[in-house]
Design a protein that fits this description.
mainly alpha; 107 residues; rod-shaped
Length: 107
């Protein structure tokens, strides 16, 4: 009889406990909506930073920012030109910086 009473008490306690767990709040993840126009604008800003870094001969940082700019604005041919040949880090001459500067002055 005492075992049955203990089981009944334990079962009743679990039922009451599970009722309070059912009322717990759930945290839902928040997803951000991407704005293509804003991403493209940010891509041009990052590309201008890459150009400035290249002018100060910080080519590794400039290359990293140019890659990021292409990811932000993949349809912008000016940024592809900066990444593809305007950065002097991959060229033996420094003439690339002037041509890429002219590209971004037209924006």
């Amino acid at each position: 009889m005492p075992k049955t009473l203990a089981r009944l008490t334990l079962s009743l306690g679990l039922v009451l406990l599970s009722g309070s767990l059912a009322a717990a709040q759930v945290v839902l993840p928040r997803t951000l909506e991407l704005n293509a126009k804003e991403m493209e604008q940010n891509g041009f800003i990052v590309a201008q930073e890459a150009l400035q870094l290249a002018q100060f001969q910080q080519f590794q940082e400039a290359l990293a920012r140019a890659k990021l700019a292409v990811q932000l604005a993949p349809q912008a041919h000016e940024i592809w030109a900066l990444l593809g040949g305007a950065l002097p880090c991959c060229q033996s001459t420094t003439g690339g910086g002037a041509s890429s500067r002219a590209v971004f002055e037209t924006q």
